[in-house]
Amino acid sequence: MKGLCFAAAIGVSALLFSACTALPERACYFNGSVLESNPNSYLMEVTGVGSSGLNLGTLATVSWEGLDAPDLKTGEFARVEFDGTIRESYPVQIGNVSAIYQTDDTGNVLNGG
Fold first, then answer.
1. ∠ CA 99-96-82 to the nearest 5 degrees?
2. Pairing relation of β-strands 92-94 and 59-63?
3. Which residues form the signal peptide (predicted)?
4. Domains of the chain with CATH codes
């Protein structure tokens, strides 16, 4: 039983660290709602998993320092593109964000994204 649990833990870890290897030419992404807007970061809840490997409802901190990110308010929606790095913490931390686009509540990018 211990061996099975260990194997399952290794499998989940491998999935988290290789979630985007199927799309090498494109960034990983997920859609989410903004729960909190801070200087240079958002706290978001995942509402669409995209290619990220994250689960619906996952809380994620998204740092966007140095990016031309939209000025999102609490309750608004966005698509976050990143390199696939997900730091295991609570909430998870999304690494190396390359773009953030405002979306509607169904995940469609607004303003030409």
1. 50
2. parallel
3. 1-27
4. 2-103 (2.40.50.140)
